[in-house]
Amino acid sequence: MKKIFIDGKDGTTGLKIYSRFEHRNDIELLLINPEKRKDPRERARLINESDITFLCLPDQASREAVALVENDKVKIIDTSTAHRTLPDWAYGFAELSDEHRAKIAQSNRIAVPGCYASGFNSIVYPLIHNNLISSNYDIVCFAMSGYTGAGKKGIAQYEDESRDKELDSPRLYALTQEHKHLKEMKAISGLAKEPCFTPIICDYPQGMVVSIPLFTSAMNRKYTKEDIYEMFSEHYAGSDIVKVREIGYTQAMIGTNNFADRDDMEIEINGNDDRIIITSRFDNLGKGASGAAIQCLNIAMGIDEKTGLNIGE
């Protein structure tokens, strides 16, 4: 039985992770006295008594928490942005490659991917590493998310009965092209430069679609939809969590909230001979956050990676 501590249990991701342990008998949760949740000595004690600690904290607080580790056997699974591009940390998206999976299994430092970055890298990493596009391709990314990705303050704003009417409509943000996931999107995918990224937040709770449009004339050769589908199918072959849908799977519209409360992801290839649209659909709180964190925990424990996850057809 593994001892688990969640530092930052009261945040959106921390609460989701905590709720997933309700019916698990293979872990023992170490709980902090609420009055001491910001006490560094008490946090340090619990971190170092644990086998695995989840960090569900802002970036700087996560860095400070890592500095509290004295027991070199403690595994840290960090859900913040702080460590995702550091070479000595495992990037927690096992399906990207055998190397990613092995590093998650072996490392004592695991960084859970960001939600937008999960969808982005699920598409762009295979395109680059299978040589369909060059690392210098000018990537444009459109993405739409439910409001739970905005954290506690954002959720409260959307769920306030007297909220601004503007919140009734989709809203573009990160207008200065400085979204915090851009560094991760570039580094993990293998791009030579950051993409042009347009995230949109919408008036529904959970679910996300990340979309990458491609001009086939700008690819390393003029690939067809069938070529691209075959590459993605092979890249994610055998995965129960990342599913590549057959061409024509969606006939008209791709909804963004269909994967709410699920921990898997689906990829679709649509378009024509000249212009291709590749989409990744998942739950921003599932495969985009707490579901990915639990999958990393399972891999680190050496058990079935789907334990405690909700995986659809």
Short key terms for the protein model shown above:
313 residues; alpha/beta; seven-stranded mixed sheet; six-stranded parallel sheet; 21% strand; globular
Describe the structure.
- The protein is built from nine helices and 13 strands.
- The protein has helices spanning 12-19, 40-49, 59-67, 98-106, 115-129, 151-158, 182-189, 225-235, 286-301; strands at 2-7, 27-30, 52-55, 75-78, 90-91, 109-111, 140-146, 171-172, 196-202, 208-215, 242-244, 265-271, 275-282.
- The chain has a seven-stranded mixed sheet.
- Strand 3, helix 3 (59-67) and strand 4 form a beta-alpha-beta unit.
- The mean pLDDT is 96.
Question: Could you tell me the radius of gyration in angstroms?
Answer: 19 Å
Overall 3D geometry? globular
Q: Got a strand count? A: 13
Structural class assignment: alpha/beta
The number of helical segments is 9
Distance N terminus to C terminus?
31 Å
Element pattern in H and E: EHEHEHEEHEHEHEHEEHEEEH
Note the quaternary state here: single chain
